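A reminder before we start the practical. When you read a complex entry, don't treat the lines as separate problems. The point of joint prediction is that each chain is placed relative to the others, so the output describes one connected object in space. Small molecules and nucleic acid strands, if listed, are placed in the same frame. In the example below there are two entries. Take a minute to note the order of the lines before looking further.
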Amino acid sequence: GESVGLHLPTLSVQEGDNSIINCAYSNSASDYFIWYKQESGKGPQFIIDIRSNMDKRQGQRVTVLLNKTVKHLSLQIAATQPGDSAVYFCAESFYGQNFVFGPGTRLSVLP
Amino acid sequence: GAVVSQHPSRVICKSGTSVKIECRSLDFQATTMFWYRQFPKQSLMLMATSNEGSKATYEQGVEKDKFLINHASLTLSTLTVTSAHPEDSSFYICSARVGSGRGTDTQYFGPGTRLTVL
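Here is the predicted structure of the whole assembly.
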């Protein structure tokens, strides 16, 4: 389930299940979005991006959905694995400038 | 993807000393690099934007005389924490912008530097 931790919301999923991580962005003019994964003690790692002229983009086991009407972004991870445990950040920008990062969601994969 | 390195990965120093952190783009040139600070269980806080050959642009509330940034080349930016105090202890992360020229410039991050000030 989803809960609010000390600072980061946490999503707990069973290994093998699909995960959906949500992000609300603030600027309706933002036209480029990125999802990053940050493991403990490491820098954020680029996962997938999407431009505003698309509403869906798929990668390897990951899918990003964009709903511009409600300014909502989601990251779907298929068949979640223990190695997916991390904090996930969304980032919005306008024409690749002035990136703004969301608060992050901690994904915890249960055995 | 583009590779960004940081050095050192971890540093412990005494209060009052200065610490320099290096950020390098390894396989590309970066005209713009960013410095972030991250507290435990929190998101990234942008400190400053570092532009090659010009002065850095600092975010509101960040002391430019305390956090000195130098972007001496297209592959290197440095952050110097001057007269460090325990409250400066944090995780410092740099990123470099890779330009696509099509409005989809992407930021690639370094592995971060854990600074502990005693």
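Discuss with your neighbour: The radius of gyration of chain A is 13 Å. What might explain this?
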